[in-house]
TrEMBL record:
Keywords, in A-Z order: Oxidoreductase
Source species, domain of life: Bacteria
InterPro entries to which the protein is assigned, alphabetical: Arsenate_reductase (IPR006659), Arsenate_reductase-like (IPR006660), Thioredoxin-like_sf (IPR036249)
Native organism: Streptomyces akebiae
UniProt KW Oxidoreductase keyword: yes
Highest classification ranks of the organism: Bacteria, Bacillati, Actinomycetota, Actinomycetes, Kitasatosporales
SUPFAM superfamilies attached to this UniProt entry: Thioredoxin-like
CDD domains: ArsC_ArsC
Protein name: Arsenate reductase family protein
Length: 119
């Protein structure tokens, strides 16, 4: 299991604390420092069953600068969204846990973290 985190994020710290409390075996990826490639983002999106706009933090300054709220959300713009996430990783929703069963989830709640542990 791997968890993508921003250490400054309280939801990330909470998820790590719960994983530790449960004795989980996991790897931490500080995705602002170890930025995922476009292919890695596509792979995680497939595991999540989501589209790039579903995991984009549209309130971030970079999102506003890029005008993301006005971007189309369709198959034709999917690559543009993925590229924006790779170039501006702060836009990626967090934390994301890739579970051992091949799935992934955005683990913003304790329930989601427990769900990842059960997979």
């Amino acid at each position: 299991m791997e968890i993508w985190i921003n250490p400054a994020c309280s939801k990330c710290r909470s998820a790590i604390s719960l994983l530790d409390a449960e004795g989980a075996d996991y790897t931490v990826r500080r995705y602002l420092e170890d930025v995922p490639t476009e292919d890695e983002i596509r792979a995680v999106l497939e595991r999540l069953g989501l589209e790039p706009w579903d995991i984009t933090r549209t309130q971030e300054a970079a999102a506003k600068e890029l005008g993301l709220k006005e971007w189309a959300r369709d198959a034709g713009t999917r690559d543009r969204w993925v590229k924006a996430l790779a170039e501006h990783p702060k836009l990626i929703q967090r934390p994301i846990i890739t579970a051992d069963d091949g799935t992934a989830l955005v683990a913003r709640t304790d329930e989601a973290v427990r769900d990842a542990l059960s997979r």
